[in-house]
Amino acid sequence: MSVIDIRELTKSFGHTRALDGLDLQVGEGEVRGFLGPNGAGKSTTIRVLLGLLRADGGSARLFGGDPWSDPVALHRRLAYVPGDVALWPNLTGGECIDYLSRLRGRTDPARRAALLERFELDPRKKARTYSKGNRQKVALVAALASDAELYVLDEPTSGLDPLMEAVFTQEVRALRDQGRSVLLSSHILSEVEKLCDTVTIIRAGRAVESGTLTQLRHLTRTRVSAVVRGDVRPILAIPGTHERTSERPVGADGGDGAVGGAGAGAAGPDRAAGPVGTGTTRLTLEVEPSALDEVLRALAREGVETMTASPPSLEDLFLGHYGDQHAPQASRERA
Amino acid sequence: MNASGAEPLTARPAAGTPRHPSHRADVHRGPVGSELAGTLMIARHILRRDRVRLCVWAIALTAFVLYFSVALRTVFDPEALAARAAVMRTPSGIVMGGPGYGLDHYTPMVAVANEGITWIVAALGIMSLLHVVRHTRAEEDAGRAELMGAGAVGRHAPALATLLVLTAQLLVITVLGALATLAGGDDASFLDGLGMMGGSTLAALVIGAVALLASEVAATSRTATGLALAGLALLFAVRAAGDLIHREGSLLSWFSPFAWPQQMRPFVDLRWWPALLSVAAVLVLLAVAAGLSRRRDLGRGLVADRAGRSQATSWLRSPLALAWRQQRGMLLWSCLGLGLLWLATGTMMSTLADMGRDLVSQTPALAGMLGSDSSAFTGQFLDLILLFAALCAAAYGIVASGQHCRAEETSGRLEAVLAAPVSRRRWLTAQLLVALTGTAVLLVVSVAALAAGALAVGVDDPDVGRYGAALLAHLPATLVFAALSAALFAWVPRGGGLAWMLIAVVFGIAMFGEMLDLPDWVQGISPFHWVPDSFTEDTDPAGPLMLLAVDAVLSALALVGIGRRAIDGGL
After folding, report:
1. How many CB pairs under 8 A join A and B?
2. Where are the domains of chain A?
3. Distance CA A308, CA A320 (A)
């Protein structure tokens, strides 16, 4: 059974369509990353999921139930960290933590104390004196100290320093190891890459990509960089390769490196290349999954001195989806 | 694209250039100049943000003066005015109205000045203090002051800009109000109108300066508003008490800005110098506030926060407990402040009884109207004070119920609570329970303090039972405001101000309803219209029981409504 099952969800605010047929599933024991830029609809999705907003269309099920009509029973089973943590200004951090975790039911003083220590939070300070990061820690401690089946975390590390982020990472890994489900909304790719089994990428209220990290990586190019002994031209001519650059080392005969292909963003030859033997060519290119076989065969045929192949980062995945969106915006700003 | 793009590009530096020289001059002018840098820019920004609010206040105040002037001329003939003058000699008349200049020759405009100034100053004073807190302390709480302060903006610039806009607003109201008095008929005079409105707006500016001081001392905007309102109530009471001691003002009266425009004697024998007291008071208050602000960190009160408890007490485990924890401070301070105010009022009862006896023997017209029994005066006075006490408790109810709920929602704190296994209905029930109980407690304390004060000075004519009956009769009407505020929160979250409008309407109806002969259905809007005057009339439980049903219906509406709407997140 899915812990979270959102299908064809739509939600409008006036003329703005915040969610436009969104699909999102989280299974039991799954840690799902929920990636998207600001304003893509991540927080709106979570608010519908918590029964704070009513869906206009489609369905949002939480533990198989309807979060709008039956929130209390469902909320007993989850813990939530909002993206922008607001606390009661005249309560201390400790009081806020206790209140929030008592509302959820069972509390575990030992776990609370341990978390306070790990996150280096002083619980005696009034909430209004906390910085953004410290308010975030209060919400994190309150959520992590409670024993829930599902943790809904909305950009939980915003405002945390790298040390605290590391603590957070460890805590979420511990949850994963215990078989808890987690929905982690974020725009920090490395965080999702470190923690999540599966990822849903949302853009303009729709899920544009969804699957395991491995599956998603298949959709993207592998970056290959090699020093080739033979002729690079056949390799550069293979369809399905992009961002091709090749370069003959300085001082070698044969003149300039052949820069093949018509990739729009092809970078210039890398003049600062390391020492490479005479007669060899340094070659970098990005290869589509379908072309990978052919490229490797061609490389082997021509003879390879050194080679690295790096898997696509989530960053590439992300930029692939948003890069074209940013471009018109930037040009509009320039106008 | 090039042609259209060129315009903003050239326009931008053009708009920026004049700022540069003045900017540099600020730096060279030394500390005073640099502390005021950016004032005009902020003032323009405030005007932009508040343009609707400012206009509404100006129009409402002008309409009030206009209506008052016209109505007194048309509704009252000279005999009725003479009778009204007699009423204005009574204690209730003095508290509701003014010091009583020109009572021997009571013309419409004399009446406007004598009875209107108190309320003009009160209304404009509330406007001023809300405006000041809104643009100083509340901006700090919201974190916007930090954003602004990071720019080339001086330390005192936001406060000065706030006061500049307020002064301009008051100036506009002065002129419009003075013009409105011209509708008052034969004895209308622009100069006297200007004196009345100018004196009143200057007194309101003093209240604004008090609010600025409160903003420096308090740790949050809510506390600042509370402090400033308490200051306003105190100054109101000081003027009333001073004038009760001696008609046309005693030494005590002069300690309140309310008295200063009244002592200018507009439409009777205009003199200008009391206005200087307002100017001096504003300057002194501003100097003190500026001094305090140099000692204070942005976003903090003067008194630093101490470390609190690291764990919550064991009872803090439900929305009800948290609502109580959040509001008990406000309730305690309200009980203390208002309790002292009504206790002091109660102790004046013996003086008033003597005054009543003298008045009846000296003024046959009054004896004809009210009977020769001087206790009629005390009863009438107590009814008025009870209405004031009930309205104060009602205002508390609005703050504690709908306004508090809305603040929880817009800050995003409600979201955190509702994400826990807490139903909306349970949460709102808790808020309502605490608000209604707090309102009731405040009314009980107020009436008890009033009774204790009166009994302490030996006035035992209304006995304790009568006070108890009066309390029971007024309680349902008082609770209407908290319940209405909660219902508004549930159904029209942005319309919370409507509950405050009801307070204003009740006030207008109570003060001027019968005098202006408003139709019954209009007077019926006021919940207190249905409550018998407990100290002068027989107790009739029908009205209060009906209001109890209204309370129940409004509360039920609130609980139904909250389940049906989306919850705003913080942002």
Report:
1. 123
2. 2-211, 222-311
3. 22
SS3 at position A243:
strand
B4, burial (CB in 10 Å: exposed 0-12, middle 13-18, buried 19+):
exposed
For residue A150, what are the β-bridge partners? A78, A181
Strands A281-287 and A222-228, how do they pair?
antiparallel
DSSP A48-79: HHTTSS--SEEEEEETTB-TTT-HHHHHTTEE
pTM score of the predicted model: 0.76
Tell me the residue length of chain A.
Answer: 335
**Model confidence pLDDT, tens digit, residues A148-176:** 999 999 999 888 999 999 999 999 999 99
Q: How far apart are CA B415 and CA A52, in angstroms?
A: 7
What would the two tokens of residue A66 be? 């309807």
B257 CB-near residues (< 8 Å, 6+ apart): B121, B203, B206, B207, B235, B277, B278, B281
- Closest among A182, A193, A121, A124 to A153, alpha carbons compared: A182
For residue A4 the two structure tokens come to 């979270």
Which residue numbers of B have CB closer than 8 Å to A's CBs? Answer: 1, 5, 219-220, 305, 307-312, 316-319, 322, 325-326, 329, 411-413, 415-424, 566-567, 569-571
What token pair was written down for A23? 């699909």
* Model confidence pLDDT, tens digit, residues A118-148: 999 999 998 888 989 999 999 999 999 988 9
- Cα–Cα nearest to B42, from B117, B145, B121: B145
Which ranges in B246-318 belong to alpha helices (H)?
259-263, 274-294
Is A103 close to B569, i.e. CB distance below 8 A? no
Q: Transcribe B379-430 into DSSP letters.
A: HHHHHHHHHHHHHHHHHHHHIIIIIHHHHHHHHTHHHHHHTSS--HHHHHHH
CA distance A125 to chain B (A): 5
Q: Report the C-alpha gap between B91 and B378 in whole angstroms.
A: 8
Q: What DSSP string describes B455-524?
A: HHTT--SS-HHHHHHHHHHHHHHHHHHHHHHHHHHHH-GGGTHHHHHHHHHHHHIIIIITTTT--HHHHT
Report the candidate in A132, A184, A183 with the shortest Cα–Cα distance to residue A155: A184
CA distance B484 to B482: 5
CA dihedral sign of residues A103, A104, A110, A112: negative
Question: Tens digit of pLDDT for each residue in B124-159?
Answer: 999 999 999 999 988 888 777 777 777 777 788 889
Q: Tokens at residue B555, please?
A: 């509360």
Supply the Cα-derived Rg of chain B in whole angstroms.
26
Beta-carbon contacts of B280 under 8 Å, excluding residues fewer than 6 positions away, are: none
**Amino acid in the structure at residue B524:** G
- Does the interface ipTM go beyond 0.90? no
Report d(CA B527, CA B531) in Å as an integer. 7
Cβ neighbours of B562 (radius 10 Å): 24
- In whole angstroms, what is the distance from residue B434 CA to residue A59 CA? 37
| CA–CA distance, B228 with B137 (Å, rounded to integer) | 12
| pLDDT range class, residue B323, cuts 50, 70, 90 | very high
Residue (of B178, B140, B194, B195) closest to B162 by Cα position: B140
Residues on chain A touching B421 (C-beta within 8 angstroms) = 71-73, 75-76, 103-105
CA gap B236, B260 in Å, rounded: 12
- Residue A112 CA to residue B411 CA, distance in Å, equals 25
Domain A2-211 has CATH 3.40.50.300: yes
The residue in chain B having the minimum alpha-carbon distance to the alpha carbon of residue A50 is B419
Q: How far is A209 from chain B (nearest CA, A)?
A: 27
Q: What does the alpha-carbon distance between residue B201 and residue A145 come to, in Å, rounded to a whole number?
A: 56
Bridge partners (DSSP) listed for residue A81: A153
Half-sphere CA count of A49, side-chain side, radius 13 A: 30
